[in-house]
């Protein structure tokens, strides 16, 4: 989300990983397999990071993450208006 106008350190948490090199507060992933699967799949990693921002972020980060998720999941319906459908 750093390139989207939201600081990436706003959600202070990391998925637990034996191969990880960073230290910080542990965040329980949506699925136990998510961290290992997302390592080799950048698109999945981005989606899961956005979901974590919705789950754990502050109001501004949650709002922006919802917008970004909507744009990736339903690109035709993403016109920047919350709750509006085409």
Tell me about this structure.
With 86 residues, the chain is an all-alpha fold. The chain has a domain at 33-74. The chain is 42% helix and 0% strand. The chain has three helices and no strands. Helix 2 (42-56) packs antiparallel against helix 3.
Task: Provide key terms for this protein.
single chain; 86 residues; mainly alpha; 0% strand; globular
> Main beta sheet, described?
none
Oligomer classification: single chain
The number of strands is 0
Shape, principal axes of CA atoms: globular
Strand content: under 5%
Q: What gap, in angstroms, lies between the N and C termini?
A: 26 Å
The radius of gyration is 14 Å
Share of helix among residues? Answer: 40-55%
Question: What is the arithmetic mean of pLDDT?
Answer: 80
SSE string: HHH
Q: Give the helix tally.
A: 3
Catalogue the unreliable spans: 5-10
Structural class: mainly alpha
Strand-helix topology:
Elements (H helix, E strand, L loop, with lengths): L33 H6 L2 H15 L2 H15 L13
Helix pairs in contact: 2-3
Summarize the structure.
This protein has helices at about 35-40, 40-55, 60-75. The protein has about 90 residues and is an all-alpha fold. The two termini are about 25 Å apart.
